[in-house]
Write a structure and sequence with these properties.
- The structure holds 2 protein chains of 2 kinds.
- Chain A is an all-alpha fold.
- Chain A has one domain: MetI-like (MetI-like fold).
- In chain A, 74% of the residues lie in helices and 0% in strands.
- Chain A has 14 helices and no strands.
- Chain A has helices spanning 2-29, 34-38, 45-54, 61-73, 87-122, 127-141, 144-158, 183-189, 193-230, 233-240, 245-275, 277-282, 288-297, 301-329.
- In chain A, helix 11 (245-275) packs antiparallel against helix 14.
- The longest helix of chain A has 38 residues, at 193-230.
- Chain A is globular and about 85 Å long.
- Chain B folds into 3 domains: 3-65 and 214-285 and 518-538, Periplasmic binding protein-like II (D-Maltodextrin-Binding Protein, domain 2); 68-73 and 85-190, Dipeptide-binding Protein, Domain 1 (Dipeptide-binding Protein, domain 1, Alpha-Beta Complex), CATH 3.90.76.10; 296-510, Dipeptide-binding Protein, Domain 3 (Dipeptide-binding Protein, domain 3).
- Chain B is built from 18 helices and 20 strands.
- In chain B, the strands form 4 sheets. In chain B, strands 1, 8, 9, 10, 11, 12, 13, 14, 15, 16, 17 and 18 form a 12-stranded mixed sheet that branches. Chain B has a 4-stranded antiparallel sheet with strand order 4-5-7-6, with helices on one face.
- The N and C termini of chain B lie far apart (53 Å).
- Classes of the chains: A mainly alpha, B alpha+beta.
- At the A-B interface, helix 2, helix 3, helix 7, helix 9 and helix 13 of A face helix 1, strand 1, helix 5, strand 10 and helix 9 of B.
């Protein structure tokens, strides 16, 4: 097992090197001149040249790349110009915020989508099946920023049920001590239920927004793969043998139908982690997506490179986990490097 | 617990958390709410030291409130009765007394003024801070230069409590330039402790920490999320501010900033779209203050070095074909001061900005265009900065429609914010819209940047005219010598020439819009257009 993991991680190294080179080059090709952006509104060409020199942008590309790689080896991703902090600290502070939101959103959508997909497949053509179709279509076709804004408007502005969309905590709560970076878990660890409640009420709306969006692929894939399995011969045999319907569906059909669901789940997760920029923007969520986008707008190279690298590493890890899950679910699947 | 119980209990929890209506402010916190100001805006600082590399405009706001300068401005009553900084009257801030001589100014420091760590402020600190501003390069050095403050030798420590600033040359802008944000006084010993060989001015330290004697200090700062400033109880340079703590949160969605204001959760916000301000003004739930940018104008610029805009008659034709009033109504929602359509024969005033006499007159524009040799018009591109797309995009579409009526076929060219300044610097765009506003509110300052033949970044049109340069230099000399009649003559002449040659067509003077709760008082307009927390009062 450990050997398998080791081999898998080793194969990921060339792709990571590729990612490093490509992001470095891409950020350099982007339009926009960092130096003139940061020289301020009243800069002379001379002032811009000074800023360029201070930022080390006057050196040749290979030189810049060499110093980037050397720093990277030391675990230094450089400094962000927009926030003025080291990229490593920023990502470490922001990744948990994004991950907490994404995981909770995914969990919520799993709880709703998987049962919905199963029932829709079992009772094909029934009202539940139609509900599943409608929910999935609506979820996919409503853009997240739109659902987010509607939720804020209804639940905060009109009804006042939800707290102000001001990020992870309201202005007077201070964050719990950091263990995992997940406020909900950290608050529980120190048994600070007040903070837990505050964090939960802040995270509720963005979670629902994300869940609505990610419901669709999971529900549809669950339904489709259940349908395929339910039509298979071994299910017919099981039915003919007089097994209980619940045993057939859960033990035989669902376990076999889970593989494509897990694959989708991995994709949805990594997609959401980077792509929930809009949700982060709407709810002022201090996540990694909005960080990267802001950096991109300011042609701030270091955070963009750091972001892409982090996402690449996460992607490798998630795929590894999924492959390992495969072999746990279906012993026939062999995980190879 | 069996499954049924579990479902019941989770449902109950969900219901409880949902209905508990968790207000932002729980009653126990009402007291601190009373003494706290919650500001929401789109973006926050990237550096809290204005001397830093690439410090953004929100960073200026922190610097303004956390550091003291030797002198500051008095207040006067501005438009709509809003307190407005008085360009011509200075008041001591960190200095107790100011004595301006012929070629130098001497400042006595306030007794008892202390930095936030308790060390007394001395003339040595002032000199170190000014030396730093003229040496670090980039924006601060450049801003100091605008007031002829260029060399460390100009700043002389007379004794512990006295500092003298020697003038390089007579310049009317030297004293005003000591009251802008840049010449702030820092705790030199504290910063030096954190300086390194690679960073002799300790920029890395002040980037993240405040080291001043000002009325507020930054106690928590999460970039992109929030800045928390606490009052400095020992502040000696003015009456103790009423607001104990300022929490400044970044809320990227403008819709949410408005919702926070209207629900009464946030106290102040300033960067909302004009439409929102216009609507909030009419429903009167909040206190909205709108003040024209001092010395600022949005304009349509033309590249005078390339055909067809090298022909002044073509430029005049364009000036007659712009949809001025439509822009005011449909883009600005009335929240701007018109800079067009002064009645014919209006005498030129000795002030800037002032309205020109062009108006939308399609027939006249057509006639001018034919006389310039373009009876069938021409094709061109109109460029704008996407960073301010809320205003620029509809504005440019209106211009496009209007110019089509005289046969000028316009293609829109949207340029991302990060790239805008680079494009301006190239001076190749034929037609574009942009805003310029100067901190120092003097006509010759504006013209020096925007029309002078030295061709700065802001002379976006590449305009060169010996006559113009003569008037601008004349006004500067006259101002330094205190020769009012000569000054007036020169100012009127350069304004007239700018309107006759019309390399850029002023459209309007934008407004600074601030939305506040009704119980918030004490807003003051400053040249830098950011908030001064020191005067706010929460009723």
């Amino acid at each position: 097992m450990l050997r398998t993991i080791g081999r898998r991680v080793a194969t990921a190294i060339p792709s990571l090197i590729g990612v490093i080179i490509v992001t470095f080059l891409l950020t350099r090709v982007l339009p926009g001149d960092t130096a003139s952006f940061f020289a301020g509104p009243a800069a002379t060409p001379q002032a811009i040249a000074e800023v360029r020199k201070q930022l080390g942008l006057d050196r040749s590309l290979p030189e810049q790349f060499a110093s980037y790689v050397v720093n990277l080896a030391k675990g230094d991703l450089g400094n962000s110009l927009t926030t003025g902090r080291p990229v490593v600290t920023e990502i470490a502070a922001r990744l948990p915020a994004s991950a907490e939101l994404t995981l909770l959103g995914l969990l919520l959508s799993l709880i709703i989508a998987v049962p919905l997909g199963i029932v829709a497949a079992v009772r094909q053509g029934s009202w539940i099946d139609h509900t599943c179709r409608i929910v999935a279509t609506a979820g996919v076709s409503l853009p997240v920023f739109f659902t987010g804004l509607i939720f804020v408007y209804v639940f905060y502005f009109l009804l006042g049920w939800s707290p102000a969309p001001l990020g992870r905590l309201d202005v007077f709560n201070s964050p719990p001590p950091t263990y995992t970076g997940f406020y909900l878990i950290d608050a529980l660890i120190v048994r600070d239920f007040e903070t837990f409640r505050a964090a939960l009420s802040q995270i509720a709306l963005p979670t629902i927004t994300l869940a609505v969006f990610s419901l669709a692929p999971i529900a549809r894939i669950t339904r489709a793969s259940m349908l395929a399995i339910l039509a298979a011969e071994f299910i017919r045999t099981a039915r003919a043998s007089g097994l209980k319907s619940s045993t057939i569906i859960m033990t035989y059909a669902f376990r076999n139908a889970m593989l494509p669901v897990i694959t989708t789940l991995g994709m949805v997760f990594s997609f959401l982690l980077g792509a929930n920029v809009l949700v982060e923007k709407v709810f002022a969520w201090p996540g990694i997506g909005s960080y990267a986008v802001e950096a991109l707008i300011a042609s701030d190279f270091a955070p963009v490179q750091g972001f892409v690298l982090t996402m690449a590493i996460l992607y490798v890890l998630i795929n590894l986990c999924i492959d390992l899950l495969y072999s746990a679910i279906d012993p026939r699947v062999k995980v190879e490097g | 617990m069996d499954r049924r119980d579990f479902l019941k209990s989770t449902a109950a929890t969900a219901l409880a958390t949902g209905i508990a209506a968790p207000a932002v402010w729980s009653p126990a916190k009402a007291q601190s709410r009373q003494e706290t100001l919650l500001v929401v805006s789109e973006s926050g600082p990237n550096n809290i030291d204005i001397h830093g590399v690439g410090t953004n405009v929100p960073g200026y706001e922190v610097s303004w409130n956390c550091y003291d300068r030797l002198i500051s401005h008095e207040m006067k009553t501005g438009p709509n009765g809003v307190p407005y900084y008085d360009r011509d009257k200075f008041k001591p801030e960190l200095a107790e007394d100011m004595n301006v001589g012929d070629m130098s100014a001497t400042f006595k420091l306030r007794k008892g003024a202390k930095f936030q760590d308790g060390t007394p402020v001395t003339a040595k600190d002032v000199k170190w801070s000014f030396d730093r501003a003229v040496t670090v390069g980039g924006f601060p050095t450049f801003q100091m230069k605008a007031g002829s403050l260029e060399k460390p030798e100009q700043f002389v420590v007379v004794d512990d409590q006295t500092i003298r600033v020697d003038f390089l040359r007579k310049d009317k802008l030297t004293i005003p330039d000591l009251a802008v944000i840049v010449p702030c006084v820092m705790n030199s010993e504290l910063v030096k402790k954190h300086a390194t060989a690679a960073d002799p001015w300790g920029l890395e330290y002040t980037k993240l920490n405040t080291a001043g004697s000002g009325a507020y200090k930054v106690t928590r700062w999460t970039p992109g999320t929030e800045v928390v400033l606490d009052r400095n109880e020992e502040w000696a340079c003015g009456p103790l501010p009423k607001v104990k703590r300022v929490i400044w949160r970044m809320v990227p969605s403008s819709g949410n900033r408005r919702a926070l204001l209207e629900r009464g959760d946030a106290d102040i916000s300033y960067d909302l779209p004009n439409r929102d301000f216009a609507e909030m003004k009419s429903n009167a739930k909040l206190n909205i203050v709108s003040i024209p940018y001092s010395n600022g104008i949005q304009y349509i610029g033309m590249n005078v070095n390339k055909p067809p805009f090298n022909n002044p008659v073509v430029r005049q034709a364009i000036a007659y074909a712009l949809p001025y009033q439509k822009i005011m109504d449909a883009v600005m929602f009335g929240l701007a001061k018109p800079m067009f359509g002064a009645p014919a024969g209006t005498a030129t005033k000795v002030e800037w900005p002032q309205a020109h006499q062009y108006n939308t007159d399609i027939a006249k524009a057509k006639q001018l265009l034919s006389s310039a040799g373009y009876p069938n018009g021409f094709e061109t591109t109109l460029s704008f900065d996407l960073g301010f797309a809320v205003v620029n995009e509809p504005l440019c579409i209106l211009v496009q429609e209007s110019l089509a009526q005289i046969g000028v076929r316009v293609t829109l060219n949207k340029i991302p914010g990060a790239n805008w300044r680079t494009e301006l610097n190239k001076k190749e765009m034929p037609l574009f819209t942009n805003v310029f506003s100067g901190w120092l509110d003097y006509p010759e300052y504006f013209f020096f940047w925007c029309y002078d033949g030295q061709n700065s970044v802001f002379n976006t049109m590449g305009y060169q005219s010996k006559e113009m340069d003569g008037y601008i230099a004349g006004a500067r000399t006259a101002a330094a010598a205190g020769d009012t009649p000569d000054y007036d003559k020169n100012v009127k002449s350069f304004v007239d020439l700018a309107f006759k040659d019309i390399p850029r067509v002023p459209l309007f003077q934008p407004y600074v819009n601030i939305a506040m709760q009704k119980n918030i008082e004490g807003y003051q307009y400053w040249f830098h257009r950011r908030l001064d927390y020191r005067t706010f009062v929460k009723g």
